[in-house]
Design goal:
It is built from 2 helices and 6 strands; from the N terminus they run βββαβαββ. It is α+β, with helices and mostly antiparallel strands. It has one domain. The strands form 2 sheets. A 3-stranded antiparallel beta sheet has the order 1-2-3. It has a 3-stranded antiparallel beta sheet with strand order 4-6-5, covered by helices on one side. It is globular, with a radius of gyration of 13 Å.
């Protein structure tokens, strides 16, 4: 993904040749979902280019806090604490 624009309320990325625009509220909510579940997959976000872009954005922005599995399109917390809200569904490497 490549950043196209950043604004006070939104960020736009170019993902596989397609534009994907997100509100900062959506980005924050997706990060909170990852923290609650300990993992986040492109598939659970819908599997389209916008989902891939959102996962890529979080992987870049939180590189110290997550481990990415490009093979499975999954981000996992590097050091999760507590019990996840939902059971992990993505395959393990």
């Amino acid at each position: 993904a490549r950043v196209l624009s950043v604004g006070e309320k939104t960020i736009a990325l170019l993902v596989n040749g397609q534009r994907a625009e997100y509100t900062w509220e959506r980005v924050r909510g997706t990060w909170e979902r990852l923290v609650a579940n300990h993992e986040l997959s492109v598939r659970e976000l819908g599997g389209q280019h916008d989902a891939a872009g959102l996962v890529a954005l979080l992987a870049f922005a939180q590189a110290e806090s997550v481990v990415a599995s490009e093979r499975h399109g999954v981000l996992r917390l590097a050091h999760p604490t507590g019990t996840p809200v939902h059971q992990p569904t993505a395959p393990r490497d």
